[in-house]
Amino acid sequence: MWGHNLNKVLKGKDLPKSIYAKVGNKRLENQYCFTSDSLFKYVNESVKNIYDSDHALSKYMILPNDNSIVCTCSTCKAVGNSSKDAAPAVFTFLNKLAKNYKNLSFFTTAYITIKDIPRFKAANNVGVFYSTIDFQKGVPLENTKFFNTFEEDIKNWRKYLDYVYIWDYAVNYDNYFDIYPSLKVTQQNLKLYKKLGIKGVFIHGSEYEYSTFQDLKSTILAKLLWDTNIDIDEEINSYFNSKFSKKLANSLSNYYSFIDNSFFLNKNELSIYSGIGKSVKKYLDPKVFFSFYNEFDLHTQINKYDKDYLRIATALTFLKLEIMRDSGIGTYGFATLNNNKEIIVKNEAALLLDKLNAYSKSANLTTYNERNYQIDDYINSWRKTIYKYHKRKHYFYKKPFEVLSKLDEDYTDITVLNDAAFGLKDYNTNWHISSLDNLVLKIDKLQITKSKQITFSFLQDSKHHIFYPSSIEILDTDFKLIKKHNLIPDNTILNTKEVTIILPTEFDDEQLTKKFIIKINKNKIDGKNALACDEIIFN
Predict the structure, then answer these.
(1) Which Pfam families match (predicted)?
(2) Which ranges of the chain have pLDDT less than 70?
(3) pLDDT per position as a tens digit, 494-519
(4) Taken in order 171, 173, 177, 179, is the CA torsion positive or negative?
C-alpha cells in the first residue's frame, strides 16, 4: 500500500459516504475519514490478503491522500483531530491494524496533515517516515535555518516511536532533466540522520520517468545507504568508466564531479520545485555547461545506438535550451538584439530543437516533469514562440519602469517583464507572479516613442491557481482611463496566450501622457488567484 494508494485498495468497492473526510457538513471524496469503520474493514482485509499471498510482505504504508484536507467529523475530533492535523485519527487507525497483526509493521508519514505527535501511545509495531520536503533546499540540513526545527522534530518522534525513518528527495520535480547533483549534500544529510538515530532512509526520485544521470545517482545513493563515508568523486569516476569509452567517461566524470562539488559548496538554496534560473545560480554555470555540452556532443555519432547515451543527450539538450530561454538576449541566450531593436533568433535554437526531437524519440522519452509535461509540446511551444519573436521589435527591452502595485515576496525581480526571455507552461521560469495585487506599472512615454502597440504574454495554470487577467487598462497618472481591453473568459486548464493592444494614435480622443500607467487586472475568481505575466513588448 506504498505511498498515496488507498484509492487502489478501495477501487471497485461499494463505499458508504462515511468513508470520506467530513469538513463542515460536507463529505469530500478526495480524502478519507480514518475513524471510519468501513475504511478500516477494507484496509484490514487487504492487509490480510496481501500478507497471505506472500509472508515476505510485512511492512505497510498507510497515508492520507496528497492534500491538506483533514476530517473533522465527531469521531475524528474525539480522538484529537484539528482542522489541520489528522495525526490522531491516522495513528488510531494504525494502532488498530497493529493490534490485529502483531507480526507486521505499519507506517505513515509526517507530511502535510500529519503534524503533531498524538497524546496517546503508539503500538510497538507502528512507525513513521519523516518527510524532508519543507527542508530539502540543496544545502546540508545542518547548515540551514531549518536544522533546529528538524532536530527537535526527530528527537520528539524518536521518543514516541521505535521506528523513525526519513523520506528524502533527489530530483527537481518541475524539471526531471535538471541534473540536481545532490550526492555530497545527501552524504552529509545521511551522516546527520545516522547521528540522530534514524533507522532508515527512502530517497524519492523521478519514479517511472527518466531523470538526468538517474543510473549514476541510484548506484551511488545505494552505496551511501550502506556506507556514508565512501569517496563520491571516486565512485563517479568508477561508474562512468564502467559504462562508456575512456575519453567520454573522463569528460562525464570531470563535469559531474565539478557540478556536484559546486552544488555542495554553493550556499544558495535550490528546492525540489525550481526554475532553471535558480539552477544556474546554484551550480549550472552556462559557460562551463556549454563547453561540456560541445565536448559531449562529439561522441554522438559513435554512441547513436546507445540508449543510456541518448537519454543523457536528450536531457543535456533540453537543459541547454532552458538556459538559452532563461538567458534571453546575449551570449548564452536564444537570440540577439540588432541596432533596429529587432530580436534575431539564433540558428542554434532551431538546431537544438531538432536534436531534442531526434534524441528523445531514439531514447523513447516523452515527458520531463512530475506533471507529465510532454517533450513534443515543449518543442512545439518553443518553435511557435521563436517564430513570433524573430524580427519582432522590442523598444521596451530593459528600459526602466516603476511598479506601483504590491509585489509578492518571491517575485520582487521585475526585470523579467522586459528582458526578452520568454515563459512556457512552467510557472517557475520567466514568469512574474502577482497574487497580492493587480500588476500596475508606470512607464515613461519617451522610452517607447516608436511603438505602435503593446504585446503581453500571460500564463493560465489553474492547478496552481494562476489565471489569465480579466482586463488591461492604460491610464494617465491621475488614473483616468485612456484605453481598456477586456479579455474573453477562458476555462483553459494550462496554456499561454499573447494579448496585443494598439496604442492610441493621433486620431484617438484620448492620448498617451508623458508618463502613463498600465494596469493588468487579476481575474475575479474566488479563493486563491494569481496573475502570471511574462514579457511586455512595445513594438
Answers:
(1) DUF4838
(2) none
(3) 999 999 999 988 777 788 999 999 99
(4) negative
Residue 87 CA to residue 98 CA, distance in Å, equals 16
Pairing status of strand 439-444 against strand 402-403: antiparallel
Listed residues 389, 415, 441: the one ending a domain: 389
Reduced to 3 states, what is the DSSP secondary structure of residue 51?
helix
Span 350-393, pLDDT tens digits: 999 999 999 999 999 999 999 999 999 999 999 999 999 999 99
DSSP label at residue 164: E
Q: Are residues 429 and 498 in the same domain?
A: yes
Domain boundary among 231, 257, 275: 231
pLDDT recorded at residue 293: 98
CB atoms within 10 A of CB 502: 11
Based on the domain organization, do 371 and 480 belong to the same domain?
A: no
Q: Count CB atoms within 10 A of the CB of residue 300.
A: 15
Instruction: Compute CA distances 185 → 15, 25, 210, 434, 515, whole Å.
Output: 45, 47, 21, 33, 50
Check residue 507 and give its pLDDT.
Answer: 74
User: Is 379 inside any structural domain?
Assistant: yes
Q: Which residues pair with 110 in a beta bridge?
A: 130
Which residues touch 377 (CB under 8 Å, ≥6 apart)?
A: 425
162 shares a domain with 120:
yes
Residues 340 and 202 in one domain: no
Q: Collapsing DSSP states into helix, strand and coil, what is residue 447?
A: helix
Range of the domain at 422: 402-538
**What's the pLDDT score for residue 406?**
96
Exposure string (b/e) for 395-426, b if CB count within 10 Å is 16 or more? bbbeeebebeeebeeebeeeebbbbbbbbbbb
Q: What is the CATH number of the domain that holds 162?
A: 3.20.20
Looking at the structure, tell me whether residues 410 and 475 fall in a common domain. yes
Number of domains in the chain: 3
Q: Is residue 246 situated within a structural domain?
A: no
Q: Are 87 and 117 in contact (CB under 8 A)?
A: yes
Count CB atoms within 10 A of the CB of residue 377.
Answer: 15
Give the pLDDT confidence score for residue 508 in this predicted structure: 76
CATH number at residue 457: 2.60.120.1190
Q: What is the pTM of this model?
A: 0.94
> What b/e sequence results for 211-250 when a residue is b if at least 16 CB atoms lie within 10 Å of its CB, and e otherwise?
bbbbebbebbbeebeeebeeebbebbbebbeebbeeebbe
Task: For residue 130, list its beta bridge partners.
Answer: 110, 166
Same-domain pairing of 165 and 289: no
Based on the fold, state whether residues 17 and 134 are members of the same structural domain: yes
488/471 Cα distance (integer angstroms): 9
The answer on 375 and 409 residing in a single domain is no
Contact of 482 with 515, CB cutoff 8 Å: no
